[in-house]
Fold this sequence. Notes:
Elements: H1 6-26, H2 34-64, H3 70-74, E1 118-124, E2 131-137, E3 154-158, H4 167-170, H5 174-183, E4 191-195, E5 209-210, E6 214-215, H6 216-231, E7 241-246, H7 248-259, E8 266-270, H8 283-286, H9 288-293, H10 296-305, E9 313-318, H11 324-333, E10 339-344, H12 354-371
Helix pairs in contact: 1-2, 5-12
Amino acid sequence: xxxxxxxxxxxxxxxxxxxxxxxxxxxxxxxxxxxxxxxxxxxxxxxxxxxxxxxxxxxxxxxxxxxxxxxxxxxxxxxxxxxxxxxxxxxxxxxxxxxxxxxxxxxxxxxxxxxxxxxxxxxxxxxxxxxxxxxxxxxxxxxxxxxxxxxxxxxxxxxxxxxxxxxxxxxxxxxxxxxxxxxxxxxxxxxxxxxxxxxxxxxxxxxxxxxxxxxxxxxxxxxxxxxxxxxxxxxxxxxxxxxxxxxxxxxxxxxxxxxxxxxxxxxxxxxxxxxxxxxxxxxxxxxxxxxxxxxxxxxxxxxxxxxxxxxxxxxxxxxxxxxxxxxxxxxxxxxxxxxxxxxxxxxxxxxxxxxxxxxxxxxxxxxxxxxxxx
Length: 374
């Protein structure tokens, strides 16, 4: 039974009803010695509490797309086939242009909450050694004969931690919000791509490469990117690519865009952070060297010191103490052609929640439309 499916949700409701009805119906009817009656009543109360907690978990998980499968929740799924040392560029001596095309089979997702038009595939990363699902949504113009020779810009969507690859489509309703705006021409048409980021049991990878453990950076910036250009009419230049993330995904978006200006032109970071150690489960935050190297401020400082400020545009939003200061720090370091736009979100907007990020979707995609081109 699927963790996020309707059958499990209905089962949780049914069990809660049973858990509430049993004590009401049987409390005074239990026979036997006092110890037996007391133990039976205690078990009924424990069962009622357990079913209530289960239903609350299901509601929260389904609303926020935290865990996709039982394997994600229990930490039993493996998404790493290998984790070779791929070197500073994350390519392991390979050249993308020399890699053969990786044509994928796509299918309709089994979760209706992702909405119509979303398709998914199971990708085996040839460079990263990571295996995981990738969701893709094509804009309304993609199949319009007038656009048959046009390539489209792409935005990679990154969730928080823990988080499902389908969170942007489910919890943030990104396609429901953007499709009518794209149809009216109010927002530029983008291909939306949401790859799995929860790839290591019980840990946030911080979107870094760690030889012998995980190559999360190369998974997102090399394998997923190439798969999209191999299978769709997607631009393959940096000016056609951006990342957008919230919470831990915001940290990844800023970090990856600044670290790879040869692959991305822009990034959106909502309620994120610069120091990876602010996420207790971050692998990068627990390693003193990686903690420094994967901090977007360090990446930007190093590029500036080398006389190569990246041609990267960042849009950073957040409340005071929840992403806003991270954006201010990056803006203070930015030297052209680097640009950083910072948006203060009122504390009254709703805190660190999907409701806050969902509300920002149209605005951030309007901004992305000014940064990307096919």
